[in-house]
Design a protein that fits this description.
This protein has a twelve-stranded mixed sheet with strand order 1-2-3-4-5-12-6-11-10-9-8-7, sandwiched between helices. It is α+β, with helices and mostly antiparallel strands. Helix content is 31%, strand content 31%. The two termini are 31 Å apart. A hairpin with a 5-residue loop joins β8 and β9. It has eight helices and twelve strands.
Length: 267
């Protein structure tokens, strides 16, 4: 039983293909990070089967995919590197944190949802959905920065490239109020291993409570299904009762809880 690591996405995909294909939902965060990750790892069990994966990006931020507790407890990153933050299924994250002896604090509790059958809001919210354009970038950049701050994600200095990629690929949608003002946004990942994940769901603070998030989430969910996704997923912040109530009404069902933690570096 051992961890192996690589910086090459194709080496990782080849080694972990069986697990990624069998458990795309549990591995959704890792699947969407593979091509941009600084480090990729896979855990091989006693029978030679890969049963755990991870991806890491600076400074380092480590994301666990599916893995047994024993894999988390045995994890030692190359060169003795220790994560600044870690996110993954709660049991695995707590097992790793306990095994290292590092001081840590929870940053966010999150819940993974998977679409069962889409049930759009009825009546639909006022307004309409449209694809985002580059003309929206200044406003959407402000929204993305606020989204990151609210959800305690690592902030970016500039969201232009992040948003432009999604706009260019038609994966970022905007909800307009009846007067034509953009009031909400949502994005969806590329379809990878049959799964796609809704993310960046945000409504301007002054416009909340009008159903705009439901409208734009429904739109990007339909876009993901139209792009061939067999599974559509999303994460919610457990501290946000509004989103945790919204998504079940749209047909999403909880799969399991995840935990994000921050470590105190050793002296």
């Amino acid at each position: 039983m051992t961890w192996r690591f690589t910086t090459d996405p194709e080496t990782f995909r080849t080694a972990a293909r069986g697990l990624l294909a069998a458990e795309p939902a549990r591995n959704t965060a890792v699947l969407t990070m593979v091509d941009g990750a600084e480090l990729l790892g896979w855990w091989t069990g006693a029978d030679g089967t890969v049963t755990g994966v991870l991806a890491a990006s600076p400074p380092p931020v480590v994301t666990f995919g599916a893995m047994p507790v024993e894999a988390a407890e045995a994890l030692v990153l190359p060169d003795g590197t220790e994560p600044a933050t870690l996110r993954g299924e709660t049991a695995a994250v707590e097992a790793y944190a306990g095994a290292t002896g590092l001081d840590w604090e929870p940053v966010m509790g999150i819940r993974l949802f998977r679409l069962d059958a889409l049930t759009p809001r009825d009546p639909a919210p006022a307004g309409r959905v449209r694809s985002a354009t580059t003309a929206d970038l200044p406003l959407l950049g402000e929204w993305a920065a606020d989204f990151a701050a609210v959800h305690r994600y690592e902030p970016r200095d500039d969201y232009t490239d992040f948003l432009t990629e999604r706009i260019t690929e038609g994966r970022l949608h905007v909800w307009e109020a009846p007067d034509g003002r953009p009031v909400a946004m949502a994005a969806v990942s590329r379809v990878i291993e049959g799964q796609a994940r809704v993310h960046l769901v945000y409504t301007a603070p002054a416009e909340r409570g009008r159903g705009y998030a439901a409208g734009v989430t429904t739109a990007v969910t339909r876009a993901a299904l139209g792009a061939g996704a067999a599974q559509v997923l999303l994460f919610t912040d457990l501290a946000n009762p509004t989103s945790n109530a919204l998504y079940p009404r749209l047909g999403y069902r909880p799969m399991g809880d995840h935990l994000g933690v921050r470590f105190t570096p050793r002296p």
